[in-house]
User: Fold these one by one.
Assistant:
Number 1:
Amino acid sequence: MVCIKCHETIPESALYCPVCGKKQGISGKSRPRKRAHGTGTVSIDDRYRNRYIAHAPIGADGRTRKYLGAFPDAESADRAIKDYIRRGSPNLYNATVGDVYEKWSETHFTRISEKSADSYRSVWKHFTPIAGMKMSSVKTVHLQSIVNSHSGNGVARCIKALANYLCKFAMENDIIDKNYAEFVKLPKSEKTEKKIFTAKQITELWRYSGDRNVQAILVMIYLGFRIGEMTALTADDVHLEEGYITGGVKTNAGKNRIVPFPPNITEIKGFVEKWLSDRGADGRLFPMTEHTFRSKVFYATLIKLGLLDAHIDRKGAVRFHTEHHLTPHSTRHTFATLSAAAGMQPERLQKIIGHASYHTTADYYVHTDKEALTAEMSKLFR
């Protein structure tokens, strides 16, 4: 409690102030001193064990008093009011997890793409069991329970990532003092081998290589481009006389990298040369979205050739009959597998494919000229 004269904090049961010696007046049950106008109130309700009730200062409307909680002693109630005023965030002091998500997303979503924002909105649905809890009451065990309720490692990682963002936002606004999301344990991941194109499937693709969509798949297999990199390719990226393409849109290591045409598979360069005359108004070789390319070029072609166990429903959606199947990213794995089997040097393969995970010792190859890379591509054959 606080001395009625010098206002220093003194023991709850003290009859005299040990600082100034002032008698505190009432023995037995102490009453909280009246707070200055506009600084909140502490009242007593003897019906409850935590009988000291704290309310924040009256709001801007002149009527509303925000309830801050019930405490075992006046000192704790007083401290809660002081903390509330010090933090200067009356709307967040008693914020629920849902409130924190709304406040965080208001700013964060303006700095990311709409696609990324939709991903967070989808992940947020998993937080329903704790959305109404006070953020200040959420601990690791609550976040862990959400992660444990989802067996998929991918979903669990997304849940932890969002929880981490929310905890950091709450710390920045003095709602919590610790990032409890850091202590969440993810389920043990079971690594599944990525399905790649077999030699028989590649041979089948070459049988129908007069088809533009089949050509696109073959180019991805022999140049290692991601689906987003294929749809982003423009005429300016193609250097036919020099024998290479510059491309890459994802990582720093993969952006604007040199990808030579394999000299022993001249058809690949021929396909790209034909596409130049059919390019879109914006100069792109495949003027379409990734979604359209994935469904109408990649999957539709493989289904048509009988290389994919799936079908396209009446709404145009691809319905797979097996869980483990070829995907557009399978072309990159196929390229890496073919290149490694052909004896391509690992450092140069990583440079061509644009991985950011190569060792620091491989940094020497950042400035490797295109002749050296072309020499590696010469190791590929049909």
Number 2:
Amino acid sequence: MKTSLSTLIPGMLIILCTACPSGNDESTKQSGQHQVEMLDEFVITAYSGPPLEEVNIERYREIAYAGIDVIVPGNGTFDGGQNLKALELAQQAGIRVLPIDTRVMPFAQTAGISLDTALIEEMVNDYKDHPAFAGYVIRDEPDASLFPALRDLYNLFREADPGHEPFINLFPSYANPTQLGSVDFRSHIREFIETVNPDLLSYDNYALREPDTWYDYWFSDLDVVRDETRKANIPFWVFIQSEGIREHMRVPTRAEILWQVNTCLAYGARGLGWFTYWTPEVDQGIQQVEGAPPPLIEQHYGGMLDVDGNRTPLYDHVREANLYTGKAGRGLIGWDNAFVARYEDGKLLEGGSSLIVTPVGDQAHLVVGTFTQDDKRRVVISNSRCETTARLSLDISPDWQVVKLVTSIDAIPGNAQELDGQWTLEAGGSVILEFKPKS
């Protein structure tokens, strides 16, 4: 497996904070399910903010304009003073920050290190009352042997600050057994949930490789994480790809950006994170910390902003995806992702459905997520491939009817007056339809 980060610093940590639109529209926050701030939101975040010499209000407004709710600064911003400056700028720009702080590193690296309660409380007191603060980075991609120690660290943060979530991000399934420390990916996810007892689960998957797309890893991971988090009744987030790494990952196209976000939506993800925003230097600005492994050296390229801070074509592609996905994701808050089915060439490959909608046609390669709320259903139909068009007809149960086109992107109905008929989904395209029972 080729990891994209050193052991703690996350291009992958999902965060929980976003500004929620006011008013009475369907995207308004559904409150009251959690006491932890923003756990009931759909969140878009990104790792690797501006380098230290570019940390200013103009750059933070540029992050907000990209449709990013929360930034994980990194890229040289790792201590209390630097993070507090980032928080001030984020507040002015209308976004939030999940800071990485080197004070926590020693306690998350090795099992058996005694926790410094006073140091953790000092860190909590530095951040917890700031309006732009999102949560605490604990650890990225731990092996399972660290789960008991991380549980203790997690609990210490939660006791000191019950209103903010400590974040631990997990490996994808293509990590090797030594990296996982578990017999397989499902066991790894289950052991983490049972041991740490988190309020959310975050993992990363970078499927757009050189030269192939790792479809099997992508969909199997979504299926496993969805299944295990539903059993635990917690939401999940996925960090996804918005840059290239020489010899490992390619720079996504617009269709590949949309494919990532729309298939995650269909599987019920409640947050998305981009790796990366600002293309980092080869060491990501990470200084060696005693007790931590050395920074991973990689040739990053093609992020939303290049290494010199110039916008790349990916900036506009991700902004478009963020504006679409943010609205679509908020529109699914309060809905239960009850069923997911994946079809290839019109044949059911895995999963199931509530029999409301069955896509048919030999070009129907799709993911169909069915969300329930009382007697209503919202069905997310997304192209399951990022390089070819999907064409389908909807075979709708006779007891149900389409009542609303919720939203769509790169989705073309065969007849704009007949939403229950044929559809063409361009590569990465998706449509969300609402159904009600026939009276």
Number 3:
Amino acid sequence: MTKIVLITGGSRGLGKNMALHLAAKGRDVILTYLSKQAEAEETVEQIRNMGRQAEALPLDIADSAGFPQFAQQLATVLQQTWNKNRFDYLINNAGSGVYKPFMETTEADFDRMVNEHIKAPYFLSQALLPQLNDEGRILNVSSGLTRMVMPGYSAYAIMKTAVEAFTCYLAKEIGDRRIRVNTLAPGAIETDFGGGVVRDNKDLNKNIASVTALGRVGLPDDIGGAVAAILDDGAGWINAQRIEASGGQGL
């Protein structure tokens, strides 16, 4: 039976890569976008060209008041496209970063991180849990920065630390439905995240590669492949875990 995965922030970057890897493994995909509708529709078209079904829905993860309405939109799409009222996997991926020294980080920066990285996965999971199938999966995206300290990421990293704690509590509370909840913590990846600093700053890129066991900075395919493996049917005994995909960075 075809399984359906919902990925927040799936129109570009790591979310898009996750969507394509999961489609290649036979999953259907619902992805969300904030403003990049054209990119979202392009990703949907790529997935459909792979022989899978896909849809895109708008969602502002920083506005938790809109989550009940999103749940209604999701219910409509599930019924119209799949003739179903439930989906199988939720990936809480969307969010931006703050790359500023501690003394330059503003309260507005901090509040944005709270809304995107703590309130969003917490309350979106709460809103969508009635639509998630028993024996489904929730994957919360964290960061290698909860283990490795790099100046400039304090606000972002402490939010992701909260995500990792949330993962364990959620796994315990919904275990009776046999829903697995895990955290994926990517290391440094060459994307446009945080203004593309890891990708575009050659000195930083070289420095990270020098402290990574595999000798390079990560690529989007490294994370998309990891997500597909974690959500594989044979990985169902992995639960309440922080899984780092960093190539051995900072050992």
Number 4:
Amino acid sequence: MRLLRICLILLLLCFLLAVTAYADEGVYITGPETIYPREVFEIELWIDRSDVTKISFEYDVDWEHLEVQAIYPVDKTAWQSVPAMRGDAFERQKPGRGQPEAVFRVQLRLKTVDAGTRFWCHLRNVVLWVGDNPYPVGDILWERTAAQIVSDDNYLSDLRLSDCVLSPEFSPYQQNYTATVSHHVAQVSVLATARDEGARVQVDSPALEYGKTSNVTVTVTAENGSVRAYTIAVTREDAPDRIPSDNCDLQNMEVTGYKLSPEFQPDVTDYVLWLPYETTNVEIIATPADSKAAVTIVGNKGFKAGQDNPILVTCTAEDGTQKHYTIIAKRAEPYVPKPSETTAISSVPAMDGTVYTAAENIPTWVYVVVAVAAVTGCAAVGILVTDRKK
């Protein structure tokens, strides 16, 4: 009797060791760390034993906070749902690959809950099967906490400008508008209200110029970082008694990567630009002294080598007065190496009848005679290097 008890205890220990081994070797559930209310998400059951032929379990969900959308194998060619006495079971369809495998996937939806609400998913009575041999694992628990919803609302609920009326009428979904202000309005004030209290509003309302249109921009940034911009093209009327500016001077002119000759001065209109052969185009930055003036540049592309290439920079004042600045771009010719002094070749017969050649590459003011005699038996070879004037 005592021996029987010892045998039973040993069998029980072996069983417990087997169960512990399978549990320690990783039967686990994976899923997203952050889940928001009303969000649909998925969790998966993984095992890491290639000799497991089947897994069975009873599925238990926090039905108060979760809705089950679907349960299905991750890879139907590897695992397939099979009938079970209780709960669910998935059976292996092909040999294991010797690495962790996702067996099945559950699609869930978190209901409308408060941030911080705890919810869970249990697999109870999990059993791994190797052939016909069951190895109970026990229960596997997966839990998460509902995350705080971060708003993506980047709309305005109200938009108004002082001293003018928007066209079209404001709508949160209309992002582009126009408006006109009187000539005495130098800048407009903007009242912009975000629809979501967690959103940030930034306004850029520049100074308005007579007779010109400037963009007023309102940027709304939602809690999640998404951005929406509203733009109002505001036109300031011209003053009836205002005299347009006749300032057509340039404040500055430069060529990117190169220097003008002479250095730029507003009253100097003619310049030279020296360029290497490799340069065919240049970038010219010309800034008018009066912000109401306009600048045009012609001829700064397609330079021809070895020629004068004129570039015309024209500054047109507000009243139409123009001033022309000329830059002569001198692009170098391609480099051609000078021919080296040629070598003159002359034939010199040897005593034995063989013809040898002698090279002449000595300057004309030097006369050099080199005699080399190689005696082979009774024969002698002579090589004469001489200068020849062309």
